[in-house]
Specification:
alpha/beta, Rossmann fold, 4 domains, 17 helices
């Protein structure tokens, strides 16, 4: 009588990753030895769900390859094979087709009790899997409602702290400083996300992924900052200290994140805010305003100071900068493409770029240099949410004050905090009362801000003030030197002027004209 052969299979679920498979394999080997079976192979799957398909498991693929050459397939228990009736039935069908038998070392499934009991037990295994899934889901909902970090890396700017079942967010000051710097430069200094991403890489600031590795003592990979990386870090509601989840029907990502709300409709917070409501709302508004055609390739906006501001007087089309340098000197020009070559529809229109830049800058600062910057503030309910936060902080501090000596140092500090929060509450009440957007101060004089910015930021200032530089072609036979009379600089006025009623706008336009030299 020939010796029966058997292949042993064991699967280790993610849910029980701390459990070693050795004792189960030993039990299978003992079971086979008692029956005189020869173990020809041991196949294992680690961190593989019992609901996954047979062909998606490396170890199970080894078992399937052995089926035609063995008499039995052996596992410690039925749930090691699968937690799905469908997948276990597929395994039984494959074994039947190769004249092999599926058994378990605990004796629940053996050659005598047939497939009926096997399917019955598999149904119970699937039921148990559903119960485990339900318990995990309920547990996550419980911890989420408490404002606990649910695992994985905390958002950029934070670090997770605390025991396993009570993890919270603490501010990672190194990363939070980068967030605050970038937000300020985008809102108040006209910086672009693309330019900031390049600068952060040039400065050697670790990307979010590398920062986490460096903080945890792991080897960094030298990844760069990308536009989308920085945009996502600035856009997410997590910067308000809120737990986030994807909007229903959307893939998870910073652009689809929304705050997790509690039973009262308030954001669930596992940690403090990095940006206050006004700053966060403002930076999102700027990012949204520059997000035309998100997700598609867009032509580069270039770095010329007067891009989309220099216009051709012949065709009213935009003029583009052609860069040219001779012996270290800049001879770049603004050129109208509709006046070039045989296909041109009007006279050539070319002008020295540096001279036009200087002329427009001088006239712009003469008119607007003493003005103060403004930005559009769009109400989005964040003031109401922040108002509830401030009220909660006041109540908590008031409770703490009851335990302290008001004349003591700690008591005085709490009183100062309460006073500051009460002032903030008054400001937020006013903010919440505004049902419509409005223009608010955004910094100091334009002339000061101009000096702070690069060409990209200055171009944004020019555009905000409705600047148009209309350039006429040179007169035939005229000297080649720059002729300022070819350039007409017009200011339609800042947007908060252009949106006034026509009568007011006309009066302001007259005033601007009178201010021009």
């Amino acid at each position: 009588m020939s010796t029966k052969s058997v292949v042993i299979y064991d699967r280790l679920s993610r849910l029980f990753a701390e459990e070693a498979p050795d004792h189960r394999i030993a039990a299978c080997k003992a079971y086979a030895a008692q029956r005189g079976w020869k173990v020809v192979h041991v196949a294992t799957d680690t961190n593989v769900s019992g609901a996954s398909k047979l062909e998606d498991r490396p170890g199970m693929r080894e078992v399937l390859a052995w089926l035609p050459r063995v008499d039995y397939v052996l596992a410690a228990k039925l749930d090691r094979y699968a937690r799905s009736v469908l997948e276990f039935s597929r395994l039984l069908d494959a074994a039947k087709a190769t004249a092999s038998v599926v058994v378990t070392a605990d004796g629940m499934v053996n050659p005598e009790n047939g497939s009926f009991l096997a399917n019955l037990l598999a149904s119970f295994a699937e039921y148990e899997r559903d119960m485990i899934k339900a318990r995990i889901t309920a547990s996550k909902e419980h911890f989420r409602s408490r404002g606990n970090h649910l695992g994985g890396l905390a958002p950029y700017g934070y670090v997770s702290t605390g025991p396993v079942n009570d993890k919270r967010w603490a501010i990672d000051e190194t990363a939070a400083a980068i967030i605050r710097e970038c937000a300020d430069r985008i809102i108040h200094h006209g910086a672009s996300v693309a330019g900031l991403a390049q600068e952060l890489t040039a400065r050697g600031i670790p990307s979010p992924a590398d920062h986490a590795r460096q903080r945890d003592g792991r080897k960094v990979r030298g990844t760069k900052w990308h536009t989308t990386t920085l945009r996502d870090a600035l856009y997410t509601p997590a910067l308000r200290g809120w737990l986030v989840q994807a909007k229903p029907g959307c893939k998870r990502g910073a652009l689809t994140h929304q705050a997790v709300l509690d039973a009262e409709g308030l954001p669930v917070s596992p940690g403090p805010a990095i940006l206050d409501a006004q700053t966060w709302t403002s930076v999102r508004a700027v990012l949204d305003s520059k997000a035309k055609g998100r997700g598609v390739d867009r032509p580069s906006r270039g770095k010329a100071l007067l891009l989309h501001i220099a216009r051709c007087a012949e065709c009213s089309g935009p003029m583009y900068k052609q860069r040219r340098s001779v012996n270290g000197k800049d001879y770049s020009t603004y050129v109208c493409p509709k006046g070039v070559g045989k296909a041109g529809i009007h006279r050539p229109n070319v002008v020295l770029a540096s001279s036009v830049d200087e002329l427009v800058t001088r006239r712009y600062l003469t008119v607007f240099g003493a003005s103060y910057l403004k930005r559009w503030s769009e109400p989005d309910g964040s003031a109401v949410l922040q108002l509830s936060e401030v009220r909660g902080q006041i109540d908590r501090l008031a409770g703490s004050l009851a335990q302290l000596d008001p004349s003591g140092r700690a008591g005085q500090l709490v009183i100062q905090q309460i006073t500051a929060l009460e002032q903030r509450e008054i400001e937020l009440r006013k903010e919440a009362d505004h049902a419509e957007g409005r223009w608010v101060d955004a910094g100091g004089p334009v002339s000061v801000e101009w000096e702070r910015r690069d060409d990209e930021g200055r171009r944004a200032l020019l555009a905000d003030m409705g600047t148009v530089a209309e350039i006429r072609p040179a007169t035939p036979g005229a000297p080649k030197r720059f002729d300022a009379s070819r350039v007409t600089v017009r200011f339609d006025g800042p947007e908060w002027v252009r949106e006034n009623d026509p009568a007011t706008a006309e009066l302001m336009a007259i005033e601007l004209d009178e201010m021009e030299p």
